[in-house]
């Protein structure tokens, strides 16, 4: 069996066997780029190393020896030579790049004798001893795990003694002295002399790389990222080239395009007279790559050509590591470069237009989740890095916000009137807080998870929100927040980063999102590719406009209850709920009717003939009741009731388990007049729009929380009767559709029957998950995170649909619904409608559309396109 491959034996497709770094070194060798020769010990050899109780078995040692001989031949140097020794780098590299693994050892092969030879052969004593001190330090650090600080302090001391600022200003004698001290440290820390035999050095280094595969950090990382099935790490052994030979040598990093904005121009940094990681380690401030053009025009040009070559070869932006030895360029690594969302779009679009990749490939190159970065404003990176972090919570809704903290919706509104920017801080929010949420810059809650009220509503509004920030103790009564290092009071300024969940003290500068022409292009390609439609959940004309700006193809869910919280309405609505007689209720409903009608008209005005699905009232009625004494007193007055009487009626609405209580269609069954009013508002608005604008609007009316077809038959008869009345009164009619949510497991199981009465289905996957698991959406955030920590769940079931269980309910309902009606239109309107992994699943089930909050629409669109490829 073969465990070692020469660089000229491999290729980029052999990542699993040679590791990412090894496969790409082989590929670069194959296409004749200047790569120092070397060989790779395979990931399988790492695997066997553990089977062999962590010894290098004879066969492997023989293979290493053979390849070493070949390397000596191709370089013309000898590994253990005392005159002009072959020096090596030993580099780890698994199939996936993986922090926590062993680092690189450079200049391996040097010892007390060969360092003298090297100094002579190169007539450069400084270089020889600089290489030796680096080798001792790296070997000690990565192979023997001697703390770096011992070596760093010696180096610092030497610089201080010589009165110089930079390593490169130390001369040969200084470095000789340092080497002596380094070896003393080594002896002290290990009880042994620094190994002098090159072959011993090499075997120790290889073993250390192998062993690092199973160090706890690496194991943890693999578990975290679900890549526990890999074989092991490869080890690359490569001839050294030297960037520390003087001012015509150096080392650097180059990106073939700008990773920040995607600009098609070489971008990077370099250092002269330096080696290895000096550039990234911040030993000295590196120079911009553009400066190399003046310093070494030839080398720069070579680098440009190599970069072009690599990019056309890999068909993606490359992140390249290079070293220059006495004016000669060498490439030491290449990989697909990390990039911002902005750069990702620019690069993908450009690469297609340059004819390098197909449209489909371009679409697959962009991570949908990453688009989040683009759609919301962000904090200026530098400013945020300098700000004080107060706490971390759940990154519930992305964006960046700064403002003064207030603890009630009223206080936020009052601040808004005065032109003060505010952050609403609460234990958790309720529907009552909506007006305050609208007028705040951002929302911070101490309790609640990713699907808590605050999180869902904030995402819907595209407003920044951090939820479940348990590190902060919110005291709404005293209007203070306690955090680890102190206390905040009303009016103090904080900043929220909803993309990371970080809470900062004070205001932080922001950068605005810009969606350029490339974004538009991307959206066009998405339309050409995807088969599933993407609608938005929107409750207001403003939300609808935002959704259209983000290329939504309709509205999949209007939550009509949100309309009742608007100013001037809540009082009528409360009177409607608390009415004891049908007449009283009718009177209050009559007050609400024109307002609802106007809401719908406005939304039709924005959406035109795009489909708009309106859900009838859903939440339990007590959610609309006032809680503050003052408000209760006012309401009692307007209703001419005593405080006691009113409190009595409010108490009657109380439910022990409201999520499983009197809500959804159950309200319509008890109070059909509410459903009738809503349907009348919808139809009158549509008819009016039709005659004003000659539009062909076909309202989609959606009944929530159905569990039995008979519920649907009942409510349908009621609302169709009302619709007929409207048609007769107005002397006009139009086409409409009455559909149902599938969100109670029983509805999914009996979907064939329900389909007989419904014109469409829309899955409320939040409730379906809640009822399928028996997890309360509002309370389960805390323990579900424990499930994730303990690997019981890989994903939160409210974030990504549970395909195995809840997914079966969806699949079954789709199948059964379509047995009854083969071309049945089926959508998704839960939070999962904006989650790429869930979208991929919905595509497989043949769902017609997903609907999500406006700010997730572009993400869902890209995910839908990718799912269709
Ligand atoms: P990492 O995975 O941390 O980037 P590398 O194996 O790429 O580690 O090594 C880090 C750096 O060490 C490289 O960027 C390069 O500057 C230097 N290096 C590695 N191998 C060689 C070599 N053969 N000759 C010169 N420098 C090398
Ligand atoms: Mg590297
Ligand atoms: Mg629901």
UniProtKB/TrEMBL annotation:
Molecular-function GO term, any one:
pyruvate, phosphate dikinase activity
Record flagged with keyword Nucleus: no
Which terms are listed as keywords in the entry? ATP-binding, Kinase, Magnesium, Metal-binding, Nucleotide-binding, Pyruvate, Transferase
User: What EC number(s) has UniProt assigned to this enzyme?
Assistant: 2.7.9.1
Reported cofactor(s): Mg(2+)
**What region holds the PEP-utilising enzyme mobile domain?**
422-501
The keyword RNA-binding appears for this protein: no
Q: Which PROSITE patterns match?
A: PEP_ENZYMES_PHOS_SITE
SUPFAM superfamilies cross-referenced by the UniProt entry: Glutathione synthetase ATP-binding domain-like, Phosphoenolpyruvate/pyruvate domain, Phosphohistidine domain
What protein family does this chain belong to?
Belongs to the PEP-utilizing enzyme family.
* Protein name as it appears in the record: Pyruvate, phosphate dikinase
């Amino acid at each position: 069996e073969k465990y070692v491959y020469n660089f000229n034996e491999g290729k980029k497709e052999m990542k699993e066997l040679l590791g990412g770094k090894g496969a790409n070194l082989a590929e670069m060798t194959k296409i004749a780029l200047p790569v120092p020769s070397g060989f790779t010990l395979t990931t399988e050899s790492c695997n066997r190393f553990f089977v062999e109780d962590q010894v290098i078995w004879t066969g492997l040692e023989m293979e290493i020896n053979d390849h070493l001989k070949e390397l000596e031949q191709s370089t013309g140097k000898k590994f253990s030579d005392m005159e002009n020794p072959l020096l090596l780098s030993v580099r780890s590299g698994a199939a996936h790049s993986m922090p926590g693994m062993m680092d690189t050892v450079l200049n391996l092969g040097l010892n007390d004798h060969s360092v003298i030879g090297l100094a002579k052969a190169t007539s450069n004593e400084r270089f020889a001893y600089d290489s030796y001190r680096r080798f001792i330090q790296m070997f000690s650090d990565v192979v023997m795990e001697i703390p770096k600080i011992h070596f760093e302090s010696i180096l610092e001391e030497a610089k201080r003694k010589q009165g110089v600022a930079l390593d490169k200003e130390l001369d040969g004698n200084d470095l000789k002295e340092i080497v002596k001290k380094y070896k003393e440290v080594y002896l002290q820390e290990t009880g042994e002399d620094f190994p002098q035999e090159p072959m011993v050095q090499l075997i120790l280094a290889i073993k250390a790389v192998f062993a690092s595969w199973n160090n706890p950090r690496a194991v943890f990382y693999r578990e975290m990222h679900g890549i526990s099935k890999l074989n092991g790490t490869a080890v690359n052994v490569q001839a050294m080239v030297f960037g520390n030979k003087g001012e015509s040598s150096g080392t650097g990093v180059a990106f073939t395009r700008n990773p920040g904005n995607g600009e098609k121009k070489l971008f990077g940094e370099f250092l002269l007279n330096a080696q290895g990681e000096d550039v990234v380690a911040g030993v000295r401030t590196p120079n911009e790559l553009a400066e190399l053009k003046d310093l070494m025009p030839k080398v720069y040009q070579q680098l440009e050509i190599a970069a072009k070559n690599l990019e056309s070869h890999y068909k993606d932006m490359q992140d390249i590591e290079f070293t220059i030895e006495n004016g000669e360029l060498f490439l030491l690594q290449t990989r697909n470069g990390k990039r911002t969302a902005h750069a990702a779009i620019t690069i993908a679009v450009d690469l297609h237009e340059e004819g390098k990749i197909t449209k489909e490939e371009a679409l697959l190159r962009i991570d949908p989740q990453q688009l989040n970065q683009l759609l919301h404003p962000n904090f200026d990176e530098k400013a945020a890095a300098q700000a004080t972090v107060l706490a971390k919570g759940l990154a519930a809704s992305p964006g960046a916000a700064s403002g003064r903290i207030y603890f009630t919706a009223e206080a936020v509104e009052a601040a808004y009137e005065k032109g003060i920017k505010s952050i609403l801080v609460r234990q958790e929010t309720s529907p009552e807080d909506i007006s305050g949420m609208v007028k705040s810059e951002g929302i911070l809650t101490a309790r609640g998870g990713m699907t808590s009220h605050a999180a869902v509503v904030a995402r819907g509004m595209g407003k920044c929100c951090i939820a479940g920030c348990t590190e902060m103790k919110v005291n709404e009564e005293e209007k203070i927040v306690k955090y680890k290092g102190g206390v905040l009071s009303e009016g103090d300024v904080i900043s929220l980063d909803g993309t990371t969940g970080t809470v900062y003290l004070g205001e932080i500068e922001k950068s605005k999102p810009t969606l350029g022409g490339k974004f538009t292009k991307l959206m066009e390609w998405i339309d050409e590719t995807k088969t599933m439609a993407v609608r938005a959940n929107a409750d207001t004309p403003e939300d609808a406009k935002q959704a259209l700006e983000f290329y939504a193809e309709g509205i999949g869910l209007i939550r009509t209850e949100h309309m009742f919280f608007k100013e001037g309405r809540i009082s009528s609505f409360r009177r409607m709920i608390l009415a004891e007689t049908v007449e009283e209720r009718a009177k209050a409903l009559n007050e609400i009717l024109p307002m609802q009608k106007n809401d719908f008209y406005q939304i039709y005005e924005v959406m035109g003939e795009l489909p708009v699905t309106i859900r009838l009232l859903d939440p339990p009625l007590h959610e609309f009741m006032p809680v503050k004494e003052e408000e209760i007193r006012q309401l009692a007055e307007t209703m001419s009731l005593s405080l006691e009487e009113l409190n009595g009626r409010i108490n009657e609405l109380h439910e022990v388990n409201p999520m499983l209580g009197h809500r959804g269609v159950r309200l319509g069954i008890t109070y059909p007049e509410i459903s009738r009013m809503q349907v009348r508002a919808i139809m009158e608005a549509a008819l009016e729009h039709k005659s004003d604008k000659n539009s062909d609007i076909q309202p989609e009316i959606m009944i929530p929380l159905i569990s039995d077809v008979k519920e649907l038959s009942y409510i349908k008869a009621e609302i169709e009767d009302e619709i007929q009345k409207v048609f007769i009164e107005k002397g006009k009619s139009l086409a409409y559709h009455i559909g149902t949510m599938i969100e109670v497991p029983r509805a999914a199981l009996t979907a064939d029957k329900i389909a007989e009465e419904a014109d469409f289905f829309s899955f409320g996957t939040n409730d379906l998950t809640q009822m399928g698991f028996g997890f309360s959406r509002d309370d389960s955030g805390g323990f579900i995170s424990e499930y994730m920590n303990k690997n019981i769940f890989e994903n939160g079931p409210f974030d990504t649909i549970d395909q195995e269980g809840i997914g079966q309910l969806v699949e079954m309902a789709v199948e059964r619904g379509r047995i009854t009606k083969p071309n049945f239109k089926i959508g998704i309107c839960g939070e999962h409608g904006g989650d790429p992994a869930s979208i991929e699943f919905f595509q497989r089930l043949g769902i017609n559309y997903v609907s999500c909050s406006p700010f997730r629409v572009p993400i869902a669109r890209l995910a839908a396109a990718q799912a269709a490829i």
